[in-house]
Amino acid sequence: MSRTSQASSPDGPITTGPVADEPVTTRPVADAPVADVPLTAGPVADVLVVGGGIIGLVTAWRAAQRGFTTAVVDPGPGGGAAQVAAGMLAAVTELHHGEQTLLGLNLASARRYPDFVAELTEATGRDLGYRRCGTLTVALDADDRAHLRELHALQQRSGLASEWLSGRECRRLEPMLAPGVRGGLRVDGDHQIDPRRLAGALVTACERAGVVFHRTRAGRLTVTAGRATGVVTTDGTGLSAGQVVLAAGSLSGRLAGVPEDVRPPVRPVKGQVLRLTMPRPGAALPGGTAPFLSRTVRAVVRGSHVYLVPRESGELVVGATSEELGWDTTVTAGGVYELLRDAHELVPGITELPLTETQAGLRPGSPDNAPLLGPTALPGLLLATGHHRNGVLLTPVTGDALAHALATGELTDEARPFTPGRFSAAALTEQPV
User: Fold this and answer.
1) 8 A C-beta contact, residue 330 and residue 360
2) 156: CATH
3) Residues 135, 170: contact at Cβ < 8 Å?
4) Are 239 and 43 in contact (CB under 8 A)?
5) pTM value > 0.70
């Protein structure tokens, strides 16, 4: 089995809530039939957010702070991405060739994170597990080393701060690394957060800001006189709103009633993730008494990406596969084996740790791996979806951009390149071949 595989599968359980650098948990939200359910009138809001993942929640919170009466429709707010995501805030180490425009948005959001965390912590009293621990990306063979050298050059051309280290210097930073590490990139500006704590805090912040939660599934968008005016839930309740934000992750493209010309081109990208438990600080380890890992460690092993994210709680997150398998969210023996095998080559001591959790979910991918943000060609309908592997990182900037768009009808300057209109027929026709 390849860590990156392609296949088609029948429609099955699907997800809500965006993520991006990581997968999301399985939870159906918006594709159940509603035609035979009697329609009853429900409350009216200024803003109705479809999807209660991290992106939907931050949008609702920021909208409520702007004075909008706001509601969220989702059967389990705070689920979705938060239950699987590793929470890497890796604007620098996630840089890919051809994604310089996305880099600007990622960096803008990374700069917001300290203030965003402080504000959310003050509003809720919750510890979000935010760590400024840095990231170390390492190479295990000559080919990987050459790839990292190219990445380092791209980072330098892009004005990013990263430091090249020898294999010995890498092992001095992280003694549990394998002896065969050939070199690496140290990026102190790439941090981490615990997405489960983040999601829980956003639910609390929304509740305290007056956001109303409808814990049910959106079944169909309602369009009246050429304008989005709300949704009908799967239990037949009509929820009316002045503006609707579709933030249902990979499911965003499947909400009934959305006209084809504005339907977001998002797809599910499966990812499998493991959770292990590290020894307590000071416990005896094969390499001594130092922490098992002190920072996020990443690598490419035989062409597959693997990362290890250590939390202060003692949890170690290992991920993630990337599989084009439709709506399948099965945890497979092959996926678990490959993650553990590659992680073992990177940090041999990992095989001594207890394996406490395995999960698989779906990232909301877009054609250019970048989010779709802001107003669509259908008045009253806005999008906040398609974040792929950067959903947790882009949470602060997405909330700000959507709140601004809801208030003014326009995107912020940094978010303007990510308008949904870039995938319209006219925009695609105008692009150079």
Assistant:
1) yes
2) 3.30.9.10
3) no
4) yes
5) yes
Does residue 63 form part of some domain? no
Q: What's the pLDDT at 22? A: 39
**Which residues span the domain enclosing 316?**
131-190+269-364
Joined together, the tokens standing for residue 371 give 């989010």
Domain for residue 274, yes or no? yes
Cβ atoms of 89 and 132 within 8 Å: the answer is: no
> Residue 264 carries which side chain, given as an amino acid letter?
P
Helix (H) or strand (E) holding 122: helix 100-124
What are the Cα distances from residue 24, in Å, to 29, 78, 266, 375? 13, 11, 14, 25
- pLDDT attached to residue 29: 39
Cα–Cα nearest to 104, from 160, 179, 177: 160
Which amino acid, one-letter code, is at 89? L
Strand partners, 373: 384
Q: Which residues of the chain have pLDDT under 50?
A: 1-38, 284, 286-288, 428-429, 431-433
Spatial distance between the Cα atoms of 122 and 112, rounded to a whole number of angstroms: 16
Q: What is the pLDDT of residue 2?
A: 41
| H helical segments located in 158-253 | 167-173, 195-208
Q: Is residue 357 part of a domain?
A: yes
From the list 114, 118, 137, 117, the residue with the least C-alpha distance to 295 is 137
Q: Which two tokens stand for residue 55?
A: 């992106």
3-state secondary structure 25-90: CCCCCCCCCCCCCCCEEEEEEEEEEECCCHHHHHHHHHHHHCCCCEEEECCCCCCHHHHCCCCEEC
Number of domains in the chain: 1
Residue 316 lies in a domain: yes
How far apart are the two ends of the chain, measured CA to CA in Å?
35
Q: How far apart are CA 373 and CA 133, in angstroms?
A: 30
Q: Tokens for 94, please give them.
A: 């996630």
Q: Which pLDDT score, from 0 to 100, does residue 42 have?
A: 63
Over the Cα atoms of the chain, what is R_g?
A: 21
State the chain's maximal CA–CA distance in angstroms. Answer: 69
